[in-house]
Amino acid sequence: MCILLTSSLHPDYPFILLSNRDEYFSRKTELASFRDESQTQLRPADLAREEHGTWIGVNKAGKVAVLVNFREPYTGDPVGEISRGLIPVMFLESKQPSDIWEKVVGEQTQNFQHVGGFSLLYGELKRRRGNSEGIEPLHILSNRSSKKNTVLKGRATVGLSNSEFEKPWPKVRIGTNVLERTIKSSVAQDWSEELLVQNLFTVLSTPTPESSQWQGLTFSQAFDMFPKSVFIPPVKSDTGSDYYGTRTQTIMLLRKDGYMKFIERNLHSSPNLFEIPQISEYGFQLDGWNS
Question: Which positions ≥6 away from 3 have C-beta within 8 Å?
């Protein structure tokens, strides 16, 4: 039950994005890397399906896409004929601007009829026109929401999880509030970038309730707790052969000079709960930011 949080409140970072991927620990995944020949598209890859899609990515042209599954009204997560993970990849690879791409991809996928439920944050990271600080509004596209496409105008902090964007789960309200407090503290106390990143990972890593109350629970027993917690501690699969929980955390920091920093922390890649987290960092200048 993943979550993403974004904010443009920091004067030195017009775009801050935080993401938790909640998944079974044994699901085959490759860590983030540049995945095209021109070394422009940065994303991890889900290897459980042959399409090798993703849930999060950014490219050097400034396109960003983050996908979360939509929890259907019934227990379970049906597998669509078309992988949801292809949708972010299709946007990152496209040459069309956001508004044109949304129409094109809808036609290509028959309005996502054969795609499992999802919500996608996407758009171009461009400096806002005029004298205003910040970036141009991003979009949210969903094939399960009553409002298919939302333009995020006038929203400094945004959260999205596995429900409709306009009907957020408690974890979204908790996450956006903590993120805003963290950014305000970082500005007031003039934190270094390293300290800011450290505290942003703290935002992503706090469970509700505390971790001790999750111990020993199975997926089914913890199911109703997922919408309330930004971080999901490991819970046993119902078969007992695997664990489910937050396994990958990602932070994107876009500096006001157009330099993007992408930090991925992979907590788990197997049912071994004593794995040492793997941390990867990438940095690059967005093309055309200063034009």
Answer: 19, 20, 22, 68, 159, 160, 161, 171, 172, 175, 230
